[in-house]
């Protein structure tokens, strides 16, 4: 592999190797056998990079299609392909990913000049914190699944214990890898690293797909809980379409421990899907950064910090929304999880959303108008992290938008004049509108952040130096100089006051939307799922179909709220 010495590496680029002298740092240009005859080293490097991305992408596509074929066969033909077969395939993929991650940690990243650059925009603290949070919940989910299967070991396969055990090891290793290396721009073993990253992305996508489509354990738990409730109520166990003789025989001997594992599994189930989605986004940025060499102007000299200054109404309104939302959430959790959920709790839940969503939409529209009034040029510098943020915001919003449209069709087709149905219909329409307006505001703000991060003090210093040179050349009198300075000061104060109200409004709106998205992230994450629990859409589409729709849209909706918080914080900090 050809190397090229760099005489003066950028001071902002961090190398993971020991602090080597400046003249010994090396950039490893990529090679690919298809482009070995290219005369230009840089051109060969670019073509090799594109070829490496293409072949690693094809690897991921083939793995995803293979896994999807297994999962689809399990759904439509449970005799030929069972859930255990899918688990065995995913376990093999997890083991391969584990070997590659360990090789990266102990081998690739430890080579000399392996990480000459680190992407300051990648691996933000909030997204790495999300990896740890969702990873911890996913580990607990696997622990509950192991405990549940251990109690029923007499009628469960041993694969149901081995698979979550491998999952715990995979989650821990991957979370450590992403926490410490999410910013790496690896400069050695390019193609092998790309293939390893793409294999890990494909594995996480298949785990997410299985979690979305597999409702076997949910139906089993629902059948057992219904049987226990009917036994306590003094009724004979009724036959249910999801019940079968095998499920009836495979019942927990200790109902208390069984209910703990069952309730814990159902509560933590959405966190696993969130973990897979977050890991995919971080791994994709790492894949884009393989072989990337960051120039000096890509790294900001001054990194803005979060300061709660100059904002009053945003935190006040946002805190009120969080407190009221927390009360509604607790009330919902107490009543909706009972044997007979109260109709009133669904009315309160939807009413809260119907009041909050229009306020968020109006705030986002005002913020977009203020962005247009600022007349700032858009940042066109290449930034893989920002590009991914935009794609994730648009893609994740499709989850709750699609779920809302399915709900609208079901409600209009049944009885839209009913109070609860009309509230649910209004909720779905407002949710679509709020997602669109917030996306426009956040994406516009992200594309203006680079310009807003330019320190104004440096511009003022440059202007003052130019003014001093001009004054010295013209040799004006002291009186004229004082008058000119006075005019310039008045003009600057007027301009600053004109900009300050816009920045202040942007910070108020951004902070309000941050707090609102936090409470809208907490409520569905920790168990508030009225679209599944009110039974209207479920009775219209059927249990299995609506289960897939909700498990596809709900994790994307939760991921959208979480990702919106990060984008809105960027807009707030740089306003």
UniProtKB/TrEMBL annotation:
<feature type="transmembrane region" description="Helical">
    <location>
        <begin position="87"/>
        <end position="106"/>
    </location>
</feature>
<protein>
    <submittedName>
        <fullName>OTOP3 protein</fullName>
    </submittedName>
</protein>
<feature type="transmembrane region" description="Helical">
    <location>
        <begin position="346"/>
        <end position="370"/>
    </location>
</feature>
<keyword id="KW-0472">Membrane</keyword>
<keyword id="KW-0813">Transport</keyword>
<keyword id="KW-1003">Cell membrane</keyword>
<feature type="transmembrane region" description="Helical">
    <location>
        <begin position="308"/>
        <end position="334"/>
    </location>
</feature>
<feature type="compositionally biased region" description="Basic and acidic residues">
    <location>
        <begin position="456"/>
        <end position="471"/>
    </location>
</feature>
<keyword id="KW-0375">Hydrogen ion transport</keyword>
<keyword id="KW-0812">Transmembrane</keyword>
<feature type="transmembrane region" description="Helical">
    <location>
        <begin position="266"/>
        <end position="287"/>
    </location>
</feature>
<keyword id="KW-0406">Ion transport</keyword>
<feature type="transmembrane region" description="Helical">
    <location>
        <begin position="540"/>
        <end position="560"/>
    </location>
</feature>
<dbReference type="Pfam" id="PF03189">
    <property type="entry name" value="Otopetrin"/>
</dbReference>
<feature type="transmembrane region" description="Helical">
    <location>
        <begin position="161"/>
        <end position="179"/>
    </location>
</feature>
<keyword id="KW-0407">Ion channel</keyword>
<feature type="transmembrane region" description="Helical">
    <location>
        <begin position="390"/>
        <end position="413"/>
    </location>
</feature>
<feature type="transmembrane region" description="Helical">
    <location>
        <begin position="425"/>
        <end position="443"/>
    </location>
</feature>
<dbReference type="GO" id="GO:0005886">
    <property type="term" value="C:plasma membrane"/>
</dbReference>
<dbReference type="GO" id="GO:0015252">
    <property type="term" value="F:proton channel activity"/>
</dbReference>
<dbReference type="InterPro" id="IPR004878">
    <property type="entry name" value="Otopetrin"/>
</dbReference>
<feature type="transmembrane region" description="Helical">
    <location>
        <begin position="509"/>
        <end position="528"/>
    </location>
</feature>
<feature type="transmembrane region" description="Helical">
    <location>
        <begin position="191"/>
        <end position="211"/>
    </location>
</feature>
<keyword id="KW-1133">Transmembrane helix</keyword>
<feature type="transmembrane region" description="Helical">
    <location>
        <begin position="54"/>
        <end position="75"/>
    </location>
</feature>
<feature type="region of interest" description="Disordered">
    <location>
        <begin position="451"/>
        <end position="471"/>
    </location>
</feature>
<comment type="similarity">
    <text>Belongs to the otopetrin family.</text>
</comment>
<feature type="transmembrane region" description="Helical">
    <location>
        <begin position="126"/>
        <end position="149"/>
    </location>
</feature>
């Amino acid at each position: 592999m050809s190397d090229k010495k760099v005489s003066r590496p950028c001071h902002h680029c961090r190398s993971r190797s020991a602090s080597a002298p400046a003249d010994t740092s090396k950039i490893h240009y990529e090679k690919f056998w298809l482009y070995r005859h290219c005369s230009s080293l840089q051109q060969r490097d670019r073509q090799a990079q594109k070829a490496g991305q293409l072949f690693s992408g094809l690897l991921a596509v083939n793995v995803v299609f293979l896994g999807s074929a297994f999962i689809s066969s399990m759904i439509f033909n449970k005799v030929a392909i069972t859930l255990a077969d899918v688990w065995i395939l995913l376990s093999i993929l997890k083991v391969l990913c584990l070997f590659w991650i360990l090789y990266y940690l102990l081998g690739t990243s430890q080579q000399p000049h392996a990480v000459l650059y680190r992407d300051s925009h990648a691996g933000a603290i909030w997204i790495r914190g999300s990896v740890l949070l969702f990873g911890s919940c996913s580990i607990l989910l696997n622990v509950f699944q192991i405990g549940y299967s251990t109690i029923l070991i007499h009628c469960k396969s041993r694969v149901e214990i081995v698979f979550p055990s491998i999952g715990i090891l995979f989650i821990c290793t991957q979370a450590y890898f992403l926490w410490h290396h999410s910013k790496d721009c690896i400069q050695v073993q390019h193609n092998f690293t790309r293939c390893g990253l793409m294999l890990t992305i494909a594995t996480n996508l298949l785990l997410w797909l299985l979690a979305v489509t597999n409702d076997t354990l949910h139906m089993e738990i629902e059948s057992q809980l219904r049987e226990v409730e009917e036994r306590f109520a003094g009724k004979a166990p009724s036959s249910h379409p999801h019940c079968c003789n095998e499920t009836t025989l495979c019942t927990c001997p200790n109902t208390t421990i069984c209910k703990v594992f069952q309730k814990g599994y159902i509560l933590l189930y959405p966190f696993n899907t969130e973990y897979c989605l977050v890991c995919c986004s971080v791994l994709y940025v790492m894949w884009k950064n393989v072989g990337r060499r960051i120039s000096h102007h890509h790294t900001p000299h001054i990194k803005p910090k979060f300061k709660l200054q100059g904002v009053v109404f945003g935190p006040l309104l946002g805190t009120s929304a969080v407190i009221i939302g927390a009360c509604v959430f607790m009330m919902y959790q107490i009543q909706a999880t009972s044997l007979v959920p109260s109709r009133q709790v669904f009315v309160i839940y939807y009413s809260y959303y119907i009041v909050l969503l229009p306020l968020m939409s109006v705030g986002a529209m005002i913020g977009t108008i203020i962005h247009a009034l600022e007349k700032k040029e858009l940042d066109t510098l290449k930034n893989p992290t920002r590009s991914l943020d935009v794609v994730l915001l648009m893609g994740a919003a499709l989850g709750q938008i699609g779920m809302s449209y399915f709900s609208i069709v079901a409600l209009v087709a049944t009885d839209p004049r009913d109070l609860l149905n009309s509230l649910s219909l209004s909720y779905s329409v407002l949710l679509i509108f709020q997602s669109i307006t917030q996306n426009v505001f956040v994406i516009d703000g992200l594309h203006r952040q680079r310009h807003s991060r330019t320190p104004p003090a440096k511009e003022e210093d440059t202007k003052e130096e130019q003014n001093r040179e001009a004054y010295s050349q013209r040799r004006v009198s002291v009186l004229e100089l004082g008058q000119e300075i006075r005019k310039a000061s008045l003009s600057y104060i007027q301009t600053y006051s004109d900009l300050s109200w816009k920045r202040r409004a942007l910070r108020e709106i951004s902070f309000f939307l941050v707090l609102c998205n936090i409470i809208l992230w907490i409520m569905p994450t920790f168990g508030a799922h009225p679209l599944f629990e009110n039974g209207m859409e479920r009775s219209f589409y059927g249990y299995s179909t609506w289960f897939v729709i909700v498990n596809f849209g709900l994790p994307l909706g939760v991921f959208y709220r979480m990702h919106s918080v990060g984008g809105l914080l960027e807009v707030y900090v740089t306003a």
